[in-house]
Amino acid sequence: MARLADYFVLVAFGPGPRAGSGEGHGQILQRFPEKDWEDNPFPQGIELFCQPSGWQLCPERNPPTFFIAVLTDINSERHYCACLTFWEPVEPSQAPACTGEEEEEAGERPSPSALVPPSQLFAPKTLVLVSRLDHAEVFRNSLGLIYTIHVEGLSVALENVIGNLLTCTIPIAGGSQRTISLGAGDRQVIQTPLTDSLPVSCCSVALLFRQLGITNVLALFCAALTEHKILFLSRSYQRLTDACRGLLALLFPLRYSFTYVPILPAQLLEVLSTPTPFIIGVNSLFQAETQELLDVIIADLDGGTVTVPECVHIPPLPEPLHSQTHSALCMVLDPELELADLAFPPPTTSSSSLKMQDKELRAVFLRLFAQLFQGYRWCLHIVRIHPEPVIRFHKAAFLGQRGLVEDDFLLKVLEGMAFAGFVSERGVPYRPTDLFDELVANEVKRMRADENQPHRVLRHVRELAEQLYKNENPYPAVAMHKVQRPGEGSHLRRAPRPFPRLDESTVQWIIDQATAKLQGAPPAVRVEKKATVPSGPPMAAIVERNGVVHANSARRLEVVRNCISYVFEGKMLEAKKLLPAVLRALKGRAARRCLTRELHLHVQQNRAVLDHQQFDFVVRMMNCCLQDCTAMDEHGIAAALLPLVTAFCRKLSPGVTQFAYSCVQEHVVWSTPQFWEAMFYGDVQTHIRALYLEPASEEDGPTAKGEVGPAEGGTPGEEAEEEEEERSALDVASEQRRLWPTLGRDTQQELVQKEESTVFSQAIHYANRMSYLLLPLDSSKSRLLRERAGLGDLESMSNSAVTNSMAGSVAESYDTESGFEDAETSDVAGAVVRFINRFVDKVCTESGVTSEHLKGLHVMVPDIVQMHIETLEAVHRESKRLPPIQKPKLLRPSLLPGEECVLDGLRVYLLPDGREEGSGGSVGGPALLPAEGAVFLTTYRVIFTGMPTDPLVGEQVVVRSFPVASLTKEKRISVQAHMDQFLQDGLQLRSCTFQLLKMAFDEEVGSESAEVFRKHLHKLRYPPDVKGTFAFTAGSIHTAGRQPRTAKEKSPSLRTLSRNLVKNAKKTIGRQYVTRKKYNPPSWEQRGQPVPPEDQEDEISVSEELEPSTLTPALALKPSDRLTMNSLVERACCRDYQRLGLGTLSSSLSRAKSEPFRVTPVNRMYAICRSYPGLLIVPQSIQDNTLQRISRCYRQNRFPVVCWRSGRSKAVLLRSGGLHGKGVVGLFKAQNAPSPGQSQADSSSLEQEKYLQAVVSAMPRHADAASGRNTLSGFSSVHMASHAPSPRARVTTLSNPTTASVTRRTAPRGKWGSIRAGGRSGASNLGVDVGSRLAGKDLLGPPQPNGAPSEPGFLRPQRAALYIIGDKAQLKGVRPDPLQQWELVPIEVFEVRQVKASFKKLLKACVPGCPAGEQSPTSYLRLLEESEWLSQIHKLLQVSVLVVELLDSGSSVLVSLEDGWDITTQVVSLVQLLSDPYYRTLEGFRLLVEKEWLSFGHRFTHRGAHTLAGQSSGFAPIFLQFLDCVHQVHSQFPMEFEFSQFYLKFLSYHHVSHRFRTFLLDSDYERIELGLLYEEKGERKSQQACKSVWEYVDRLSKKTPVFYNYMYAPEDSEVLRPYSNVSNLKVWDFYTRETLAEGPPYDWELAQGPPEPLEEERPDGGAPQSRRRVIWPCYDSRLRAQPDAISRLLEELQRLETELGRPSERWKETWERVKAAQRSEARQDGRSTPSSLLMSSVSHHRRSLGVYLQEGPVGSTLSLSLDSDQSSSSTPSSGRQAARRSTSTLYSQFQTAESENRSYEGTLYKKGAFMKPWKARWFVLDKTKHQLRYYDHRVDTECKGIIDLAEVESVTAGTPTMGAPKTVDEKAFFDVKTTRRVYNFCAQDVHLAQQWVDRLQSCLSDA
């Protein structure tokens, strides 16, 4: 029973300090009782809460108001203050009397009260009822009654009413009903709630939702649970109280334990800036003062808004609970929402009353908490049962079960004060239960089932609402009140008198009487129904929400079990195979649990001694388990492993045992205090449960057990035991709490002691365990760990993840022998001691361990740590002596002849890089990387050989290598090795053969060894000079700089010749070059200061005197010179000049004038230009002595020389270096300004002009009239850009006559109109500029597919005889003379540095350094685009195609770009390749490379950075870019090249590999100087390794067709015009493909490994007849494993010949014979076929792509059109078809009827199947596919049936059957018998039938 009201208080207005202001303060006039109750002191500060807005006088009488304020006392008890306020006129004594001073003030600032006569002011007076019970209606009625008696003047003594009110007692709960009367003829019925734990809310929750809406209330709900500050605003005080009460009711079963003030008085507004959370209500009047609160959530009840500041984050409810709750609230608040869309809505349902709706809303939140906290009792640890239960909550396990470890909301709720209160209040196992306990224990399954069925959810909500309603209103029918109320407007009537002063003594007497009566009466003890709280079902393992890939399938768990059983059975090989799968499976939670369970089975008596291998396996699996555990260990994996790490051990030596804990310390979980606490409490609970379950063995303690016995009834002993086993610790505790009051005092004392000693012994046990896992084994490692562990964090007891075991070893901390302590390490021991002590303090204080015991523990801990340190020292010492784990044997790589090992294998791990193939990515195959092996450094290569670390992959050897010379970047990296957790040194090597070695050195490789490796690598990569490269040193160990002697002995004559040549060259060039080694272009004079021409002449004449033989005919040559000439004639250039008909040396020397060009030996001593070959082609009319002067106009003296002549148009292709400032450009720039005297530059320019004129004259078309000619227009500024030209550069076509005339007017400069058009006359330039044509953009119309221009507009009617293609930068502002017969075409070319930058980006795109997981799939394509490599290829092809067109149309072209040895070489070579089929043969391509790249001085050594001098300049892949262009053309025209794509890759690899001498040095001159050029001829026939790549290719071609293209079927004089758009280009697979089985396949001897054993020979017991092999895309070479059909046949042929004992003939001869036989067969057939084995109809296979020039209809315009099947009139669709066919595959000929392979065809009658007639069909015999196909008629493309000739058994003569054609001879019938049926055929006559039979027979015999 409790008092209804504790105090009655009368509070009145008291004037404030400033009289006259109308403001005052509250004064307590009277309070009853005057003495405080003992159990409940009088609350202070009531007067503030009676008028929260402040005490003020009022000019009019207000109606009475009522509200309830809530005060909280120091014991967190809430006091409800019901305040009824009414207004009374101010008495004169209270009226403000104005003194003189105040009058002055009033004059200055008139106050409102000063203006009103005193008689009209009203003062507030408040009646206050203070109670600890919350019966709002009763308080309202009671105070209303007192006010009514006063106002209406009823004849009832107020003292009696108040006395009765204060003495009224009612039950707190229990559902009883009490009628009370205050003695004024009134009656009130008070209903107490059924259980006082459920809050009473009336309608407050429903009102809150009405005011704020669902989303806002949910936000406030989450904010309150996660401890944010909440402020309610309203103009009504009662609304504020209701809103706060409603919010608290929603939080049930949690209790709000922070500041709770539903109505905050104005004087206390500073409380709002408190740092702690709160729920406070404030009147809206003070809204302005709440604006500056930055971290307060403000809910405006009147406006219906909730404002959340930016800095506050309210975590939402976890899904799906949030959406479920939201939809349930919608159903309750707006039931019509579900029906709103119905076509025929049902009649409106009556909505629930407000009170009922209130309960339904609360029911939704009750369900929410039940779902949120389901299974919470399974996470409670009961640490003590007696004398009071001590309960702890295992937060990590609770979160782990739900998969909500990361959920912000739940984490904050569990850490909050409210939840701590929930655990201590509701965790108790034996207590009264309520609705929530029932719900969370029994209804969870139902809620899970109802989740997706709204009507069932609503039904459940209504059921719960009924119970809540019943709790508040147990007797709804009889709630009858009878209370007098004042009449209407009574407050306006003038009251007879102010509220009287009451008689204290009367009231006190009534109270005393009642108290005495209560004391006499027996105490009314309310018996609480206590019971064991139901736990409900344990939380089922919820599927991990993050959808981990490793779904824990039964198969995975099976693998884990098998592996562990293999380990313990000693089947180590089996275990090793399974281990990787186990380690992968352990990512899943279930597998980790399975592992701990399985390991537990192998522990007997807390100990399991293993051998070394078993120990390693177990430790590895444990580490794998732990590495995914967070610091919280939410899944209890670390907890389950903790007993195991102290159980598994191995014997190191007698008396020294190593336990698993010393190997699993590197995990963050061991240094987390919360983990240890949860573990400790869990173990204590187990032991305390055991304490009460164990059979009572002692006599003095049977009472506890004796009580339990009868409760179990007469069950047999075994069942009783089982029952006991099943009982949880909470059940046991509940039972014990029930019995506790019945036990004797001694027994109670004894149980308390037993529990306390249990906790104490566990604390000692845990101090030991913690020292095991925190003190590291190895003192040296401890230093390293200290930095990472951050002992400071442990000092501050922070929960930050400490990665490793407690910092550092303490092995020498108390080193007594040395006499002093090592401060550093003892500090570590100290840190561990402090960590353990802090833990012990916390858990022992919470578990009620006595202070004596606690002191004893503190003394013990340092000893425990010290003892453990001493044990560890011995273990560490012994563990070092263990034999190291057997590492895999190093696999030695096979070496080339002459290749020697420089550094023997260093153990490394090859790590996966960004190429996913090796790591078993999307291409399939296993994870070959990471691989464990060694890296070898030889004189030629860097080689890795090893095996995959994943044993499941099998024993595959992984090889990755590249030539040392191709290394482009070396970078140190530190790698997290996958075995251990430490960082290891690593090295990343990148090579320009598109290879990457990303290696981590094994720990046995010291940093010194790694450094030695780097230094050696560097020395080999950058030798001091070319003689240090592998091509020279192979097979001979000589120091750099010393001459290899072998060459000297073999060919002394050649050596002398070389020396002689060099000496002469030096003499000729002049003294200044004698000492220089490095090649510098000779500068003949200081170009800045012109030298008088006389001096120049002198110099030349001197040189002529010095060397009289320069211009003498061959007959007068000295013997040594003659030898030189003979050698020069043998060079590739000369052979090619003869082939092209450009003259021979003899004819040139004898000056045969008939030829337009001649061979000049002027450079035979390399005197004019060092980088040119010795023999050059120049116009016949040019004298040798002028060439030297001409050469000065060009960079590097590379003057224009002819390098190729078109056999058809006789146009020539010339090449040169770019022009110097005073060259042609100067000549064109001179604008008739007379020069003072003839300067040297002018003379050179004149010579140059003559030279160009001579070139033009030497051409057949030079006689064309110069006048009236138009030329190729210049290139605009957008030359090579890929965007459209700028508007200023737009031009119109010249075919329009008006435009042409405009052009002539505005640009009288003729040909050069567009060069300078950018500036002034932009709009009316010449015809479409070639720049935009080259950029692939046409201004005249839409382009055709693949980049061919659309209209014949860009080349103008008459072409120049010579086009000079030059750098745009050089030719700026050039103004040519319109009468010249040549034209300059300025183009923008990319510089070498751009090529270098592009190549670097290409390397990174194709061979990325980081694993693929870190980059998106599109990143490869993005990087490829950013590299701009394909754009550069596009530009090269574009320029080349342009030049090809010009040459084909009869104009000559001079390519004069940069220094003439990079891009010039690329363009010139490509042009020749496209124009001349000879260069597309193996021999021709070799000749092309030798001539244009080697003889014409491409700087291979400089561009490839071959030596130390070139190291800084880096690698520039000019030649590689050329080969890529060739590859692009090859891909588009597969039938035009004799060599295969492999040949191009081979050259790409070996031009940087330094295996051959071919691609070394920068010019022929340098090769002669080293004696390389001619020794090749002399030293042949030795069996030494080839020094020339060409010789190697020849040798290899004889053995194998690897360089040969079987599809080679050339058309004579075919000019190729490839598409060059980027969309038509392919990324070369040379950049991306690799085979890990053998490394790069370009060193043929190494790539040809041992032959694969056939299946029969294999020992693994496979099926003997099978010859199948699994080919992994990244591992095996597919070409080798499965060669193409023709190679396979040739191999088979060779094998059969060998078996028959015949000498096998060369593959080439066989191939030629087959082709010849086929040609003759084709002739017999009378069908014209191309000379190819493939019987393709070539007209349908794209041969010539791109553009070709043709004479147009108007004049002789050059038109560009697409070459497809049709001529230029082709429709767009046919163009598309042609394009499609161009990309068709090798076997495209089988796709349509026309292009099929038809060996023989004709009409035959065929008898249908059974009961079907004869029909005439068109039959096709196909030898290639070995089929007989038939069609309905000849032009039918759809095959109606196929007879496979493999199934044919015989072809025999047949007889006519029923329905056969009548007119046919009987002998024309024949039958074909197959394994399935017999086909009956009939030909038109006997002859045809015989032919068919013969054909079929020959086909069958061939097969």
Task: Characterise the protein shown here.
The chain has 1903 residues and is an alpha+beta fold. It has 61 helices and 45 strands. The strands form 12 sheets. A 7-stranded antiparallel beta sheet has the order 26-25-24-23-29-28-27. Strands 42-41-40-39-45-44-43 form a 7-stranded antiparallel beta sheet, with helices on one face. The protein has a 6-stranded antiparallel beta sheet with strand order 4-3-2-7-6-5. Helix 9 packs antiparallel against helix 10 and helix 10 crosses helix 14. The longest helix is centred in the middle third of the chain and has 31 residues, at 851-881. It is elongated and about 155 Å long. About 20% of the residues have low confidence.
Distance between the termini: 112 Å
Overall shape: it is elongated
Give the strand line-up of the largest sheet.
Answer: 26-25-24-23-29-28-27
| Low-confidence spans | 96-117, 541-552, 696-724, 780-825, 1037-1057, 1065-1119, 1223-1239, 1263-1357, 1576-1583, 1650-1665, 1728-1795
User: What structural class do the secondary elements suggest?
Assistant: alpha+beta
**Overall number of strands:** 45
Helix percentage range:
25-40%
The largest sheet, given as strand count, sense and whether it forms a barrel, is:
7 strands, antiparallel
**Radius of gyration of CA atoms, rounded to a whole number:** 52 Å
Approximately how much beta-strand content do the residues carry?
A: 5-15%
Write down the overall mean pLDDT: 75
Separate helix tally:
61
Q: Can you lay out the helices and strands and say which pair or pack?
A:
Blueprint: E1 2-3, E2 7-15, E3 23-32, H1 46-50, E4 55-56, E5 65-72, E6 78-89, H2 100-108, H3 112-115, E7 122-131, H4 136-152, H5 158-167, E8 169-170, E9 177-180, E10 188-191, H6 204-212, H7 214-225, E11 229-234, H8 237-251, E12 259-261, E13 278-283, E14 296-300, E15 305-307, H9 321-333, H10 354-372, E16 380-384, E17 390-393, H11 395-402, H12 408-415, H13 417-426, E18 430-431, H14 435-442, H15 444-450, H16 454-472, H17 504-520, E19 531-532, H18 554-569, H19 572-585, H20 589-601, E20 608-609, H21 612-627, H22 637-645, E21 648-653, E22 656-659, H23 673-693, H24 702-711, H25 717-726, H26 729-739, H27 745-774, H28 779-789, H29 791-795, H30 823-846, H31 851-881, E23 901-910, E24 931-938, E25 941-948, E26 958-963, E27 967-976, E28 983-991, E29 995-1001, H32 1007-1021, H33 1030-1033, H34 1045-1050, H35 1052-1069, H36 1093-1106, H37 1119-1130, H38 1132-1140, H39 1145-1149, E30 1157-1160, E31 1176-1179, H40 1184-1191, E32 1201-1205, E33 1212-1215, H41 1224-1229, H42 1240-1257, H43 1297-1306, H44 1330-1334, E34 1362-1367, E35 1382-1387, H45 1392-1406, ...
Helix pairs in contact: 4-5, 5-17, 6-8, 6-10, 9-10, 9-16, 10-14, 10-16, 18-19, 18-20, 19-21, 20-22, 23-26, 23-27, 27-30, 27-31, 30-31, 40-42, 45-46, 47-48, 47-51, 48-49, 48-51, 51-52
